[in-house]
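Give me structure tokens for this 408-residue protein.
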Amino acid sequence: MRLNILLATFFTLLPPIGYASEFCKDSESVSHAESQSNSIQADTVAPLSGDETKKKGIIARIIDYFDESNKPKKNKKFDFSIIGGPHYSSDTKFGIGVVAAGIYRSDTTHSDSVYLTPESNVAIYADATTSMFFKLGIRGTHIFKNDKARLKYDVNFASVKSKFWGIGYENNINDDNESIYRYLCSNTRVDYILRIADNMYIGPTASFDYINGHDFGKPWLLEGENRRTFNVGFGFTAEYDTRDCLTAASRGYYIRLDQRFNPRLLFNKYAFALTELNLSGYWPAWKGAVIAAQAHARITYGNTPWGLLSTLGGSNNMRGYFEGRYRDKSEIDACIELRQHVWRRNGIVLWAGAGSVFPRFSAFNASHILPNFGIGYRWEFKKKMNVRLDLGFGRHQTGFIFSINEAF
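Here you go.
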């Protein structure tokens, strides 16, 4: 069972499991942003003098910081914010984490009061715990002028103490296989996609993955595979994206196809290919409500190393399951979620889903489908960027997740 215990107020926490960082396509007009700014200025009391500012305590300044965090800052070329603090997990123990996130626009040209280039983003995140969990990374999306191209990047390093149940559903479902191991990993991925038509993008992708597992409590569960592997891959990414917002969509569709190859000619000892498909849709329901649905599949072919197998669980899919417990060459999962705005910057979500792992389609077994459901809380940290707190339930498992932005 995985159960995190919150030690700090929700606005001072960091997710120990990564950070989603794509921001909204700007459909708001310049004049609307200006009217919001004027309204904010009109409702704000006169600025404090230097002496008055010094009298404000640290708590008051933190409250002011987060109170202003989701208000538009049209005069800032680079809107930078920091969120962080302590957290506790039965897996990673007590820790401190920080995310430094920024949004910017590569071009501020506008037509008919509408920006022609959506906002780009970048985030640097770090986390360290008493169980020797450490993660450091940078992730972002740079959108070129007039959205003619997008550069997506994610570079991270982690040192983790985790659990391993082996490979395949039959091993994974067996509680007696639970064992401890440690691993170092470094992952790099870069996508450069070009717009070839309205809402359609395609382009090359490249990746590098290094995984070094050690101190396995039950090494026979590796089935003879090397504990240390590195893989270099290349391929292409194709996207169709009509979402009104990349971080908190209320309408539209998102389709993404990734095809990657890790051949021997790139000095990969484990040669394999990977196909990943993501289908998402968003529909307004009643006032303040959005219904979101996602279907996802990650299929690998060839000699896939243990560290790059498809897995269920974590902060984005099948929330509630220990990330990496269920792993095999392929996985599929689906989820439907109700997102309801409640009051001011607060909202709740309810979701239900299912998923499974399998070595190949011919071996798919309907009895191996795992259920998933949960409830979550949302707080708008920045405009259209939510802090999320999710409590997920699965088969004999519970997961408590704190993260940034929606799961999909």
